[in-house]
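Methods — Computational structure assignment.
A single polypeptide chain was analysed. Its primary sequence is given first, followed by the predicted tertiary structure written as structure tokens.
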Amino acid sequence: MKDFVMYDGHFYNSSTPLVGAANRGLRYGDGLFETILYSDGGLHFMDWHFERLFNGLALLAFEIPPHFTPNALAEQAEHLCKKNGHTSARIRINVFRGNGGLYDSENHNPHCIIETWQLPRAGFELNENGLVTGIYPNARKAMDRFSNCKHNNYLPYAMAALHAKKQQWNDAFLLNAAGRVCDATIANVFIVKDGAVYTPPLEEGCVAGIMRRFILENLPAHGFSVSEKPITAEDLMAADEIFITNAIRGMRWVSRCGDSVYNNLLSSTIFASLLKK
């Protein structure tokens, strides 16, 4: 069975070249992406994903045509899942500007490539074995208005993931320009200390994660203390527990970061309360 992608509303074989050397997304990382979970016939957290995407497109000064709407993108993504025979899938929606140089873009209209990958199961499962992690030393993420977007200039995360693979880690933590903990390569970071849960505020440069938002909004109603505060590398190492979150995997707990070892007592309770169903 062939895999298909969708480019500007049309199906193409996944091996078809779709953009050329003059594309600004390729040249400059001029665009944004969303990674969305598809199961049970629909997109999970659809409203939040498209709220983040379209806020980012406004920040990047895209000119949005009337037909380019959240509902249209959602329908295209669902059609692609069905075309590929994917019943539970990871969807990647990549929106980018067209051709042009740094000062002479042909226009500011959005172009869009949608891809889907079948997932082995629907729903979230907490990892049985904790993740082994470390801190990536060679990048410092900016703390500006663009840092909360999932933009296509993903170099710090790509290099951190490459470093993690070489170190035989499951993931790596990135620091911000102030040397504090920002996020992981594909997830937001939460620590547990003395029964309270903490995560870096958006001003620290982390991506405005969908699952991060879900946990911050819903955890207090289940009797847990959660708040945003800057987290240093020392805080990370001294934590009782660490867990990371994203929209595809939900939540995963960390068993080791450097020489520090963690349990998952509260993390597993949070998962059971919020994400197991």
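Note: The chain has two domains: 4-118, 131-274.
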